[in-house]
DNA-directed RNA polymerase subunit
Amino acid sequence: MFFLKNMERRVTLHPSYFGRNMHDLVTSKLLKDVEGTFAGSYYVISIMDTFDISEGKILPGSGLAEFNVGYRAVVWRPFKGETVDAVVYSVNHQGFFAQAGPLRLFVSAHGCGKLYTDPEEVCVYHPGPPVFHEGQK
């Protein structure tokens, strides 16, 4: 399920980037570091906007500036029993493996029910367009 979540993160900026457009650089570094990552129990899909960038504090010994940035992000948290679109990438007699964005999952053959009526029927993945054979159900 997707949520809009207010979050906060510390972003450091190298002294060579100090200047007029530091807030833009902090925002772009935040986007690069956070979008598409796993943050505990959810995945950060996209950052909508930043709403609070603190004044930078110089870190002793390194000269880096540290900013606390508040931002709104679209996050995805998968729940047990949730139906998602996924791409199957491996099938065997025990079940199949699929990928839904960053989430990899396994579905047991016992969880599929009576999917195949013919015990000799084998499910095989072929890249490209679907191939149908004469007599195939």
In short: Helices lie at 22-34.
